[in-house]
Structures are given as C-alpha cells and as structure tokens.
User: Fold this.
Amino acid sequence: MAIEDYEFGKRLREIEEPNYRVLFNINYDVLREICDQLMRFKEQKTSNHQGIFAFIILNFSELELDWNFFEKIRNVRNKNKYQGTDITKDIWKNAELQMDIYISTINSISE
Assistant:
C-alpha cells in the first residue's frame, strides 16, 4: 500500500504548482511505513519515528543510509505537524532525490 501511495505522489509532482507539503508528507509517510515493515519483519516494534529510523540505521548498515538525513526529514515533518511550519518548494527539492533513493533502496530489500 505504501508503494501505491508513493506512485500516486510521483504523479502529483507533475502538476504545474504542486502542494510541496503534500508531496513531502506522502514521501515521508511512505519511507516511514516501509521502514516499519522491515522492523516488523525482524519482529521488532517501536512507538515513534525516531526509533524506527534508528532501527534501520543500526540493523541495515550495509545500506549506508544517513542518520542525519532521517533526522532532518523527521524534524521537518514534526515542525509541520506540530508547529504549523510550511514545507516550501526549497525544502521539498532538498529532500526529494534522497527520499526517492531511500524509498527505492529500502523497498527493494523488503520485497
């Protein structure tokens, strides 16, 4: 289901003036969901996003994922959700490629 959302989000990128907050949040949620799936596959559980990302970093070091990137996008998401900070085009563009790469990489090992 997460990848279906991801594919829909990719189609939204083609809109002339997309909502960058929506694009960011779709991709963030997809990334978090596929990371959560890997945790469940390893019979682990956590109640927060930071724990999910930490688990991926610690248990899948061969993927060479960047902890700082996970923290950056988690903080952007939290500021948007809890403080109302908007997600601008610049914020989205700075995260877009790396989110795509991480989603593709993590999804490839969870299939």
Remarks:
- The two ends are 12 Å apart (CA to CA).
- Residues 20-41 form the longest helix (22 residues).
